[in-house]
Amino acid sequence: MKNKLPAYYRKSKVMQELMQSLELEMERLRSAVQLTGNQFFVLLADKNLSEHEEDVGLNPDLSTDFESRRSRVLSRLRGTGTVTKTMIKNVAASFVNGEIEITEYPSQYLFSVAFTSKQGIPYNLADIQNMIEEIKPAHLAVEYIFTYRLWQDVKNELANWSEVQTYSWEGLLTFQVKNNINIIDGVPYYCPDDNGNSVVVWNESKAYARRNA
C-alpha cells in the first residue's frame, strides 16, 4: 500500500503508522476470509464441521477430535449408493489414510478388510466397523485383518534392543522405521546414529534427551 502513495506521504510518520495499522487489519481480514472458506470443505472445516455431520445424518460428537469426525463424514459421503467392493474399500480408506485390500468369499457369505500399509490395529477401528456395518448387505459377514512386524524385522531394524525393552508387546509388533525414527506405541523414538550421538525420546509432547557416553 505504501508504494501507491505519493512520495511526500512515505516520509510522514503519521502515514507510516496508519499504513502499518491498515496492513494488520488487512491481514486479519485475509485470515478471516480463509477460515470462512475452509468451513465449506469437509477436510478443512472445524467450527462448522457439525453442519457437515448433520447434512449426512450424523450426530456431532464434540468430544471426538476433528480428524475422526471428518473421517466419518467422508465415509458417509462415499458410502452413498449401491454397495460395491470399491465403495467398502473407499469407506475404510477414508478412516485410515492408507492402503486397504478387500477380499470376497462368496461361498462363505464373507468378505475381509485388510489394512496393508500400516501395522497394528487402527486407533479408530470402532468407527470403521460401525460404518461398514451400516453400508454392507446384512447377509454378509466381515472380518478384519491387521499387519504386524516379524521378529526378523525387529532384529534387523531396531538400533539397540535394550533401548526399547520398556515398550509394550504391541509396540514392538507395530513399530515403523523411517529416517532413523522408530514409531513405537505411537511415540516417535529417535535412534542413535553410527557415532553414538544423542538419543531423543518424545513422550506426551515433551522431549527427553540423553547423550551416550
TrEMBL record:
The organism's place on the tree of life at top rank: Bacteria
Keyword Coiled coil appears in the UniProt entry: yes
Entry coiled-coil feature ranges: 12-39
Keyword annotations from UniProtKB, A to Z: Coiled coil
Identification of the protein by name: DUF2313 domain-containing protein
